Automatic annotation (TrEMBL), chains A, B:
It is found in: Cell membrane. GO terms for molecular function: molybdate ion transmembrane transporter activity. Keywords: Cell membrane, Membrane, Molybdenum, Transmembrane, Transmembrane helix, Transport. Residues 23-226 form the ABC transmembrane type-1 domain. It comes from Nocardioides donggukensis. InterPro entries: MetI-like, MetI-like_sf, ModB_ABC, NifC_ABC_porter. Pfam families: BPD_transp_1. Its main location: membrane. Belongs to the binding-protein-dependent transport system permease family. CysTW subfamily. This is Molybdenum transport system permease. One of its GO terms (cellular component) is plasma membrane.
UniProtKB/TrEMBL annotation, chains D, E:
This is ABC transporter ATP-binding protein. The lineage of its organism: Bacteria, Bacillati, Actinomycetota, Actinomycetes, Propionibacteriales. Keywords: ATP-binding, Molybdenum, Nucleotide-binding, Transport. It comes from Nocardioides donggukensis. GO terms for biological process: molybdate ion transport. GO terms for molecular function: ATP binding; ATP hydrolysis activity. SMART domains: AAA (SM00382). Residues 1-226 form the ABC transporter domain. PANTHER family: SPERMIDINE/PUTRESCINE IMPORT ATP-BINDING PROTEIN POTA, SPERMIDINE_PUTRESCINE IMPORT ATP-BINDING PROTEIN POTA. Residues 253-319 form the Mop domain. Transmembrane segments: none annotated.
Amino acid sequence: MVAAVDWPGLPAQLRSEPLRDALWLSLTTSTAAMLVCLLLGLPLAWLLARVDFAGRGALRALVTVPLVLPPVVAGVALRTAFGRTGVLGAPLEELTGFSFPFTVWGVVLAHVFVSLPFVVIAVEGALRSANPEYDAAAATLGASRWTGFRRVTVPLALPGILAGMVLGWARSLGEFGATITFNGNYPGRTQTMPTLIYVTRQADQDAALALSLVMLVVSVAILVMLRDRWLVTP
Amino acid sequence: MVAAVDWPGLPAQLRSEPLRDALWLSLTTSTAAMLVCLLLGLPLAWLLARVDFAGRGALRALVTVPLVLPPVVAGVALRTAFGRTGVLGAPLEELTGFSFPFTVWGVVLAHVFVSLPFVVIAVEGALRSANPEYDAAAATLGASRWTGFRRVTVPLALPGILAGMVLGWARSLGEFGATITFNGNYPGRTQTMPTLIYVTRQADQDAALALSLVMLVVSVAILVMLRDRWLVTP
Amino acid sequence: STGTGAGDADTLTVLAAASLTDVYAELATEFEAEHPGVDVELSFGSSTELAEQAADGAPGDVLATADPISMRVATDADATATEPVVFGTNSMVLVVPAGNPAGIAGLDDLAGSTWVRCADEVPCGRVALALVEQNGLSSEPASLEQDVRSALEKVTSGEADAGLVYATDAASAGDAVEVVPVPGAGRAATSYLLAVLDGAQAPGLAQDWVDLVLSEAGRTVLTDAGFGAP
Amino acid sequence: MSFDVRLTVPGRLEAGLTAADGDVVAVIGPNGAGKSTLVRALAGLVQADGHARLDGVNLLRVPARDRHVGLVFQDQMLFPHLTARDNVAFGPRARGVPRAEADAAAVAWLDRLGVAELAGRRPRQLSGGQAQRVAIARALAADPRLLLLDEPMAGLDVGVATSLRLELSAHLAEFTGVTLLVTHDAIDALTIASHVLVVDEGRVAQFGTPLEVSQQPATDHVARLVGLNVLRRGDLLRAFSPTAVTVDVQEPHGSARNRWPGRVAAVSPHGGTLRLVVRTTDGPELIADVTPAAATELGLTPGRAVWLSVKESSVRSYAAAPA
Amino acid sequence: MSFDVRLTVPGRLEAGLTAADGDVVAVIGPNGAGKSTLVRALAGLVQADGHARLDGVNLLRVPARDRHVGLVFQDQMLFPHLTARDNVAFGPRARGVPRAEADAAAVAWLDRLGVAELAGRRPRQLSGGQAQRVAIARALAADPRLLLLDEPMAGLDVGVATSLRLELSAHLAEFTGVTLLVTHDAIDALTIASHVLVVDEGRVAQFGTPLEVSQQPATDHVARLVGLNVLRRGDLLRAFSPTAVTVDVQEPHGSARNRWPGRVAAVSPHGGTLRLVVRTTDGPELIADVTPAAATELGLTPGRAVWLSVKESSVRSYAAAPA
Ligand SMILES: Nc1ncnc2c1ncn2[C@@H]1O[C@H](COP(=O)(O)OP(=O)(O)OP(=O)(O)O)[C@@H](O)[C@H]1O
Ligand SMILES: Nc1ncnc2c1ncn2[C@@H]1O[C@H](COP(=O)(O)OP(=O)(O)OP(=O)(O)O)[C@@H](O)[C@H]1O
Ligand code: MOO
Ligand SMILES: [Mg+2]
Ligand SMILES: [Mg+2]
């Protein structure tokens, strides 16, 4: 794969606007999606791991759904819900004039949809591995659920949470089917790296490979950087 | 999405041979891939979490690669490596006459390729959350690394490992791009559910949705069953 | 019927562009009726993908692509045993969702609306681009779709107000879309090619398949689905 | 303030006690008696039925976080990811004290417990006794209304234990809340406490002042703890001090009606005397204190066959607590 | 068999000791002295330089799993996912004993420690003392050549502690390997051990027989542990028993040249006497034993100002161990 790349042509490609746009869009939307996943996923995972309530099995099954949907079907599901004529999308557009498809927000939404289960399941696993007695200790010291969660549960489960974040981010970055089905493909707006690579490949194999390589290098570099900073807890 | 399904036609579809073949293929290859991922991923995760060796950073980066590859590119990467003219595929075929692409084994290989990082990262996170002092206790009792790993490390990190297995299995089940690129789309041999859904969608959108729903129900049912059996540790 | 080559396997494997799903399925039934004991295995995918797989030695007897460029990938790799033949064409049309909610009456109305077409790099995109340029259309689409099916779906689902798709897609969508006439649409067309593959396990059956597609019966099936004559 | 407890943890504990402002209740009993269970039920970590009324409020109905108890866990449970200071500051901060103030208070507490210089360390970098002191600081710093100390002295060296005992007595003397102190140490039970609760097999065997309990121990365990021999005869308990026991190597001919043959099981120094543990042939284990001179003379080493006797006048008889 | 240790854990410990077949070495010292560090270094859980030769083999060069030590952790570290029986059977099974046999051995060990009926429980379902006993059983069941016990008696009730002490002495008497027993309890150190290693601030302060150590304690800590007062004068240590201390409420006029003003900090029963801890005004804390009668007469309650004195003839002087 590395050998197949058109090395002399690479610098020119790197300067090409579609590549820069797509790379930037991919990185920002994946990061945004990861943050949203964390915001939604952490409490959800905590609920699933620590609180014993009636609908727990059902909620867990629900969270798992996007995991087993083929990406394209995920896109269709998203459209049914958030499309312009969708169950939630239609009222939303009526009220605010805003609609998700064909926008950056749509890309983030698609990423969140496919990545959230990864985050939730990985984090739930981590929370279950951590000793719940510490939560109890925090409670006897007067910590509210939120304080205990923030200052004890999360730090103790941190390695697992970070793993979940990496998984979510990477899943978003590589995601293709749901994004293109829900948002289509427009350079600078909804054209992420995988989409760019896909369409480029239809015309020019080698160019697509070069693009893949760029994406690979950038994302692995970011992951390695993150790992060295945060993920290797002392 | 549920509303859009052609309910009266469903029973007939359920009995159709392509559906049964594809569903069976998807379930078996995903399960096989998950087992392979476990076999490869557990030691790998353990190595990354517990052993301090020189190439650790590099190995971790390498494991992460398939995670950030768009699925189609993953398929191309696989072809470059294991294709009939691939770096490893060509010698393999010469020696044994066996080649991966366009076979069930190729499907499993593609699934393993895309799912392995999920398993490794989730399991590494779980191992890091578990207290390494217990490993030390096992060692003082004369347990070999392997015994300690099997009887102490793994049981203690079980929730995280199970989460990793679920993630890997589900990722394989939904995987489409790498599989179709590397293995094509041969009914009964390499046509998994996502591929069948893709093809069906070319002709009949509603039939595709019905297939998706079948897949969804079956896989969520399996996950829920597994959870109730194993994943909710007392 | 035509003679079956001795030593041929009893399965014919056809690699075909996804847009041929319906017609090839119909032709396969006919083929199996004519060749008792023979199974037709259809493997659909994107033209480029299939051509590449064929070049990589994917099992298959015939390859049908939706454009000449993809077919060239296979011929360049010496993966074909016979000269590719054109067996049909497909032209671009403008479709709107049933009821035409955005009131699109022609290409000029696309400005300001949410419309889609295929990306420049994919076969259907090249055709669409030609049509757009012919008509001097300057309005930008909301999305450049990965394949024509996705473009059609954006319209049938109501996400897009209009889309440029093949005539065959418009036909298969039935009542879900309405076709808006576009000047010069017929000229913006692509041709479908068919060739027997070098690695065919059943070269005789493969040739029979080519013959069937090119036959009068084949012609009828294609025309019914909206394909044009070669 | 008043504290009135009657609670049940099904299958493990059924206990009641009352205490007033400033009381220190020592909880003693054998391993597995239910001491930790009682403490944890009061803290809200174990589900319990019944009531535990503190100033009229039934704690058992209040979530753990709002009970305002200070708990030293038997196994410490220091937060592994926080420094000693942050562990101690956790309680105050959870109750809304500003960071700087909470930190200062934490350091002050660590200082009182003699581990201020370890403020920046994580629990895993502390020795067992150091960690124990941080755990005590953490419980006290939370400014609780109910202080629950589960074996706070375990693992502390004599010097630290003594000064901690002093520190704790001083603190408890000022403390207006109620304290429960689980201990296996007679000194803690008899010197710091105002009341002693004896738990045995999940039930209260005795509840009274240290004097009552030490003079009329209701169970064998308490007798051992306070260093008395206790025998049961029908409904009566008969207690006598190890100093009242005479040790002979032959069967004694004296007037003592209470005599037992046995073997020396252990010898250990005890104050200025030597304490023998004797396994009687068909009775209980008894303890006897002898002078070092006598021990040498009689050759009282483990394994030696001996006769123990005690004069009836040295035996105090009292009614056994109803079981 | 011989055991010869000289090891360094940088920044935490520098220690040496020698022992022979069947020796029991008590390791004592204040909290944070380095006792657990020594034990963990020998077990291979802490990196150490130097050597620890057991029968000529340097353990420090052998991986932990092959050292054949039996270790009771200060914080137990029972495997939380295994039952008590499986915890105890873990060592034998790791060394290749068949399952049924290992299980039987495990139950036998649990029985010797009085917790056989808890064999099927998980650690979290055990009380602190019960868990401690399972931990001891686990260490002994592994059939070690070197037995490392880090505060095995902590958290045990008096009854259990006594019988465990007996059980342990009996076991250790038969045991041909070397035992290191970390303890804060003088009784363990002086009755079970054949040698006592005193650790202080990461160094060996004293190493000798229990008699040597108890009669000439080299550190304040040991003095307290064995119940002596120890003062340093130049290079000399001066030890005297608490029974030799006279307590007055006014400045004594007698011949005693050693006298200190101070205040009573604590009073506790000790054998037949009462033990006072007195904080001297400008000196160390001293202990004095008085009769209950005297205590009542003089009103010796905490806070009382007193004078302590000791006759020179009651003071034993000896050279301090080189620091
Ligand atoms: N989670 C549990 N499930 C079932 N039984 C338990 C559980 N925890 C403790 N027990 C049992 O309850 C009884 C009381 O335990 P508890 O911890 O209160 O004893 P304790 O008095 O604190 O003993 P120790 O002095 O050993 O700490 C014991 O027999 C113990 O085995
Ligand atoms: N991981 C660590 N990193 C740095 N210092 C440590 C670490 N573990 C222990 N220490 C320090 O080393 C010293 C010796 O600790 P050690 O645990 O050996 O003490 P100990 O004698 O067992 O005390 P205790 O009686 O309290 O158990 C202590 O001052 C402790 O704070
Ligand atoms: O999983 Mo995909 O195969 O993102 O399109
Ligand atoms: Mg307890
Ligand atoms: Mg220690």
